[in-house]
Structures
1.
Amino acid sequence: QVQLVESGGGLVQPGGSLKLSCAASGFAFSSYSMSWVRQAPGKGLELVATISSSGDRTTVYADSVKGRFTISRDNAKNTLYLQMNSLNAEDSAVYYCRKASGERGQGTQVTVSS
């Protein structure tokens, strides 16, 4: 079955950086577009970034993270990444990786606070 396991979250100061990872198994990872989504307390799910399955690895970002976050993937390792720089309090949320067909992992908490 599909398994998506996020890691790399934690507490970081404003302006800091974190790199999230998502280990995927149970499906042909390289064949699917993958996304990072996040949910802050009391808010709905927000699509953060998407990367295509194709060779050119097309990426799309939410306006709120454009220029600060970078999504990438290593198909040989079945792993999705999210490099997050210049973090601010509004980035605090549970971050999930999501397969194009909708499945997502258990999430990893990111807290930006001084």
2.
Amino acid sequence: EVQLVESGGGLVQAGGSLRLSCAASGFTFDDYAIGWFRQAPGKEREGVSCISSSDSSTYYADSVKGRFTISRDNAKNTVYLQMNSLKPEDTAVYYCRQSPYWGQGTQVTVSS
């Protein structure tokens, strides 16, 4: 059974940092790209970042480029999202995804 478990969310002031983790199990982790998505209240879920399985190439949405960094530790079956210079508009539930599976999400709230 595929499981994706996010952690690391919380409340932080604008300009602060958080590191999200996505711990994966139930599949051969090294073989799959993993993505981070987020959904703010009243808005559609949007892609934030993803990392490939092979060469760990990365993608970032324009809204987070230069502030967020995605990485993976294949030995720990974990993907991380380091979020710096957080803004109130980053407030959302953050989900990791290994298509077609989703984690349960972790809340990130950035106060102004």
3.
Amino acid sequence: QVHLVESGGGLVQPGGSLRLSCAASGFTFSSYGMSWYRQAPGKEREWVAYITHGGRNTNYAESVKGRFAISRDNAKKTLYLQMNSLKPDDTAVYYCQYSGYWGQGTQVTVSS
């Protein structure tokens, strides 16, 4: 049974940083690319970043490029999202995703 459990969200001031984690189980984590998505209040869920199974290649939405970094530790079966220079527009519930499976999400609020 696939489980994805996000953590690391919270309240941060504009310009601050957070690191999200996604603990994966129930599948061969090291064999699959993984993504982060987010959903802001009243908006559709949007893709944020993707990383290949080995971690060598990454892609980012234009809105986060240069500020966010996706990474993974296949030995720990964990996906990460380092978020720097956070803006109020980054406020959303952040989800990790694999092949149609979603975690429960972690809330990120950027506010002074």
4.
Amino acid sequence: EVQLVESGGGLAQPGGSLTLSCSASGFAFDDYAMTWVRQRPGKGLEWVSSISWNGGSSYYEESMKGRFIISRDSAKRTAYLEMNSLKYEDTAVYYCNAYVWRDYWGQGTQVTVSS
């Protein structure tokens, strides 16, 4: 059974940093790309970033380039999203996603940016 479990969310000040983790199990982690998606209050799902199966390529939504860094650790079967220079508008529930024959999602982790 594919499982994705996010952690690392919380409260951060504007300009601060948080690192989210996504622990994966139930599939060949090294064979699949990983993606982060978020849902801001009252909004739909918004793609944030993706990383290729081997970590060799990464992609970011334009507004996150230069602020967010996606990475993965094969040994830990974990994907990460390092978020820097956080803005109020980064407040959202962040979800980890993997497409393994179909979309799988974690339960999400809340990130709140507030002073």
